[in-house]
C-alpha cells in the first residue's frame, strides 16, 4: 500500500478528503431515513432541534436518540453505537447507571418532592463527597456548570471589590458572557468570533491570557483590576491542551501576588481522577466549579469554596445571598439532583471506576498513536485521564489560539461521519473520546480498527473505494 502524506494543512490531499466526505455523507443519508424524516418535520423547533447546539453534526442532520445504556446508544433507525461522546461529559458515569436510576426512582416514586425548595439531609452528604474529593470544604449547588461559573464570578467580584475576570484564550465555561474572549493577533483581548448578543464589549468585563503563558498572565494581572482567574486546569474545549510543568503553580503564585482569586472549572477535567485535576496534580484553588458528570446525567452543578472565603461572604450584610441577589435559582439544589449526585459519586464514579476508565483511555491513545505513526501523519493524540483527543498538528498545540488555528472542519466531519456510519459516536465538537465505567476493551478496539480504516482510505493513493 502506498501512503501519500502531503505537506500543508493536516497532511492530507484535500480533493481526496472532499470525495471521501461526500461518500460518507451520502451513506449517512441513506442509512438514517428515520432521523432525516424527524429532522425534516420538526417545524415547531428553532433550528429544528430542541437546543440549537444539536445542529452541530458532521452530516446535515443529527441522529435521533432511541435508547441509551452504559456506553451504548441506539438511534431511531435501529443502529447501535459505542458512545465516546457520553453527552459531552454529562454521562461520563455511563448512560443510566443502576445506582443513579435507583436513587432517582426512589426520590420520584417513593418519596416525591421534585421542586420543593427545601433542603434534604442528603445535600450535606453530597457536599461532603465533593469536599473529600476536591479538597474545598464548603459547597453550593446549581443545575449547570454554566450557573456554577456565573455565581462563582459574582461572588469573586463581591469579595474582592474588583470588576474583571481573567480567562484563557479559547476557553469554554458555558454561556458566561465574560468568558467569550480571545487574544487577537495584536495580543489584545477581543470578542470570541460568533459571540451572540454580548451585553457590553467583553474587554470591559474581562481580561485574557494564553494558556501556558505566565508572562502574559502577569502582564494582565498587573493592572490590579482582576477579581479572579477562572480557568480549566487543562483546556478541553479546543482540543486538549495540557499544562506545561510549573504553569499551574505559577498561576497560583501570581494570583496570590496580585490579590486575585484562583478558580478552577473541573467540569471536564474531572476525568483526570476521582478528585479531578485538583487532586491528581495537587492544586490549591480558592474556588472550584463543576457540573455535568456529577449528576450521572441528571442536571446538577456545584461550586466549592474555602472556609475563609465562605465566612467572609456570609458575613457581608450588604450581599443578598438569600433572595434575588444573583447567586441562586429556584430549582438549584433540588432533592432529585442531590440524590443523583450522591449515587454518582458514592457508587458509580469510584476510584476503581477511574482505574478502569484510565486504562481504557491509555489503550485508546496507544491505538490512535500507532495509526498516526504508521502513516507518518503530522497529527498527535493527547490523553487527560479518561479523555483522549486526536488532532491534526504535531507537536500538540500549547495554547488555545494555537489549537484553534489547526482546526480542520472537513477532516473532523469525515472522521465523525465515517465512524458514525460504522457504529461509533465521537463528541460532535472535536475528536474527543471519553471512557465511562461501562466502556469495554472491545469498544475501544472497534474505534482503533475503524480509525485505522478511515485513515487508510484517506492517505492511500488510487481511486477512492466505494462505501461498503
Ligand atoms: N465548563 C466547562 C469546562 C465546560 O466544558 C462546559 C460545557 N462544555 C461548561 C462549563 C458548561 O456546562 P453546561 O453547558 O452544562 O452548563
Structure at a glance:
By secondary structure, the protein is an alpha/beta fold. The chain has helices at 14-31, 33-41, 98-111, 122-134, 145-160, 214-221, 247-257, 276-280, 307-314, 335-348, 351-374, 400-405, 409-421, 441-459; strands at residues 65-69, 72-75, 80-83, 138-142, 164-168, 181-183, 189-191, 206-209, 226-231, 261-265, 287-290, 301-305, 380-384, 387-391, 424-425, 432-434.
Q: Just give the CATH class of the largest domain.
A: Alpha Beta
Strand order of the largest sheet: 4-12-11-10-9-5-8
Q: What's the CATH topology label of the largest domain?
A: Aspartate Aminotransferase, domain 2
Mean pLDDT: 96
- Oligomer kind: single chain
Task: Give the second-level CATH assignment, the architecture of the largest domain.
Answer: 3-Layer(aba) Sandwich
Radius of gyration: 23 Å
Structural class: alpha/beta
Attached small molecules: 4'-deoxy-4'-aminopyridoxal-5'-phosphate
Number of DSSP strands? Answer: 16
- Rough outline: globular
Q: Helix share of residues? A: 25-40%
Count of structural domains:
2
